[in-house]
Amino acid sequence: MWGEEDLRMTRKWKTYLLGYLLVLPSFLFLIVFTYYPVIRSVWLSLFQKGARGVTRFVGLENYEYMFGSGLFRQVMWNNLVYAIGSTLPAVALGLLFAILLNRKLRLRGFFRFSLFYPTMIPIAAASMVWIFLFSQSYGLLNKILGIFGLPSNIDWLNTDPHAMIAIILVSIWKFAGYYMLLFLAGLQSIDESLYEAAVIEGANVWHKFRKITLPLLSPTTFFITLVAIINSFQSVDQIYVMTRGGPYNTTNVLLYYIYQNGFVYWDTGVASSASVVLFGILLVLTFVYYFGLQHFVHYER
Amino acid sequence: MRKVLVLLLTTFVLLTAIVFAADPIILRFYFPVGVAGPLARYMGELADEFNKTHPDIIVEPIYSGGYIETLQRALTASKAGNPPDVALLTAADIWTAVDEGIVISLEEYVESEGGDTFLEPYFDAFLADCTVVGELYALPFQKSTPIFYYNKDMFREAGLDPDKPPTTWAELKDYANKLAIKQGNETVRWGVQIPIDQWLLSAFIMQNGGLVNNEAGTETYLNSQEAIGALEFMRSLVAEGLMPARRLFGDSSADFVAGATAMMYNSTGSLAFVRESASFEWGVAYLPGNVRRAVPTGGGQFVIMAGIPEARQKASWEFIKWMTAPEQAATWSMKTGYVAVREDAFDVPAMKEYVLGFPFALVARDQLQFVLVGEPPATHGARQISRFMTDALEAAIAGRLTPKNALDSAQAEAERVLRPYR
Fold first, then answer.
1. Which of A90, A121, B46, B289 has the highest CB neighbour number within 10 Å of its CB?
2. What are residue B31's DSSP bridge partners?
3. With contact defined as beta carbons under 8 Å apart, do A163 and A146 qualify?
4. B29-65: per-residue pLDDT in tens?
């Protein structure tokens, strides 16, 4: 005979089982396309290739080489510059656009669409167009600079630091609209009555922004900033199309470095080591995200 | 007994039927297009002609991006157990392909065609790029060299003889000085442009009496006295305001036809572009020498992939043999501007007529006498070595490092790459 206790246990197990069954498909994909490659990369990073397919176990030698190499340090530095340089302005612009376009404006839909539009264009295709905009002799950017009497003979993609600035500009252009959309969603979840109450108390625009919008938007801001930083480690298409890491490796970032070592030089050991480093960085960022969500961010509800 | 006989006979008949009804062999051929233009169309036309004349083989040319992407596709497809049959690879990538074991040696096929007599008409300069440590892995197809371009109108203006291009480094610098136009500290017309690429650094190293690597492809001499001297000379052209710090091949040919530079080093691949675009009288010549004249080769050659059935490898051999035969070598050269890969291609009537109208094609051919070792670096991990060389060139030209320091670090990096192959 089954007692009531047993019945409850069975029901509980059934619920568990259903849960596991439901996540099983995506879990399988995660194993095949995420966990297995990660483990395999760690494994491959311990080997070095020699002539005619011979591989040799070298322990941590690949890492030792990499951390000791000037190029790798430059690549990490570039990535930091790129991450900060593209994240902060893109997030700030996204917020600004969102606040402006959250009001009732004429042509609001048009502006929202125009700002979001870059997100939908494949970055590789857009980069081809940007190459023309950045051209030294007939590029639109230099022409515009010329109109304002600024230096207008800049060889954007071939000189340092202009190449990195160009890459960052494209990245901001690409992502600001997307962040705007996320901010808009965040803004619309803020209760209108809070602003009304604030106005009655005599708050001005700045106060409303500083005391209501910003705190209540903090989960969104936090989320977007993290996404933006992660984006800056993952978006490499415009570098591939526009500069190929040049000039003088000044636009060579971690993911491009991995691509170069892995698929141009076929140096699987170093490429895997660099991948493990990238994986580590992204893992830390993810931890920061979950930890931050619980501790730093202001939740109203 | 009768039953067995009947069975055997039927089997025999069936087998014959199968053999006769067998589909022609379909070959997948990965090819890159190194330069812009209708090259992909010409490749299709050549393949069509082959297919018409070889009813049992159908070649399917598959455009595969640039040279780097072609190796990527061929290598990853091979690793996945689904290799193409033929690919067109650059010399550096053939070393990688051999090290990865994805291409077959062609020695046996050459032997069966008569050995040395078969290879004899091909230019040795180009066969060097098909060879890895003494073994032939490829046949040359779309080949180029750097060549010297100069603006004859500007030569006249500067009081130089337009029929006497510089033959030495000293003359080169002297002419550049006469041809460059400066306003204050700024150069408004460059004397010369040398695109920033290891290909040309290699040329200068060899002209200075040095070599880039050893024959076994396990050692480089990037910080030899000759190499340092070569880079110092290139740097001095920039330091003295005769040459811009950074131009790529495309930038330079654009500058040349726009009259922004009086002389340039560029690929023979730009001959067609300059011919179409230049509105002044221009000429080409051998690269100037220093200790000696020297020129590297470049471009692509055919390989046959490993891991495909022997019948397909044989069919692939038929295809690449046909593609590099005199007629086809001449056709490809005339349509694309690449240097024809064999001596007897220049005896093809159409080609004879073509060079009459475009004698620069002969300058490119005759410069092959100065090819020392094909396209350096010819080593294991050659792509990486050439990147180190380009990095060193860029750093020294931009004045970030002295030529010696830049080359020392390139050599140290190369050491690490090559050590496992020794």
1. A90
2. B63
3. no
4. 999 975 555 788 889 999 999 999 999 999 999 999 8
Tell whether B40 and B133 lie within a shared domain: yes
Q: Which two tokens stand for residue B370?
A: 């100065």
Task: Report yes or no: B62 at the A interface, CB cutoff 8 Å.
Answer: no
H/E stretch holding A46 reads none
Question: Given pLDDT bands bounded at 50, 70 and 90, which one contains residue B11?
Answer: low
Q: Specify the pLDDT at position A301.
A: 45
pLDDT tens digits, one per residue of A238-256: 898 888 887 888 899 999 9
For chain A, the residue count is: 301
A58 in any annotated domain: no
Which of B374, B364, B341, B312 is CA-nearest to residue B59? B312
User: What range defines the domain where residue B315 resides?
Assistant: 25-137+298-370
Q: Six-digit token pair at B69?
A: 């992407």
Residues of chain A that touch chain B, judged by Cβ-Cβ distance less than 8 Å: 48-53, 56, 65, 69-71, 155, 158-160, 246-249, 260, 263-267
CB atoms near residue A291 (< 10 Å): 10
Q: Do A266 and A214 lie in a common domain?
A: yes
Whether residue B241 is found in the same domain as residue B319: no
Q: Which residues, numbered 64 to 83 in chain B, qualify as contacts with chain A under a Cβ-Cβ cut-off of 8 Å?
A: 68, 72, 75
Q: What is the pTM of this model?
A: 0.83
Structural domain for A16, as ranges: 4-44
Q: What is the pLDDT of residue B141?
A: 95
Q: Label the pairing between strands B146-151 and B261-267.
A: antiparallel
CA angle, corner B9, sides to B4 and B11, nearest 5? 95
C-alpha of B345 from chain center:
18
Distances (CA, A) of B109 to B99, B139, B304, B322: 21, 11, 11, 13
Q: How far is A139 from chain B (nearest CA, A)?
A: 14
Is the Cβ of B396 closer than 8 Å to some Cβ of chain A? Answer: no
Question: Is B420 an 8 Å CB contact of chain A?
Answer: yes
Nearest to A225 by CA among A94, A50, A65: A94
Grouping H, G, I as helix, E, B as strand and the rest as coil, residue B318 is helix
Q: Determine the average pLDDT of the residues in B142-170.
A: 96
Spatial separation of the C-alpha atoms in residues B188 and B349, rounded to whole Å = 46
Chain A residues with CB under 8 Å of B416 CB are 65
**What is the distance between the alpha carbons of residues B58 and B25, in angstroms, rounded to a whole number?**
6
Asked whether this complex has an ipTM greater than 0.85, the answer is: no
What's the total number of domains in chain A? 2
Do B249 and B395 lie in one domain? The reply is: yes
Q: How far apart are CA A11 and CA B129, in angstroms?
A: 72
Task: Say if CB B204 and CB B372 are below 8 A apart.
Answer: no
DSSP bridge partners of B187: B182
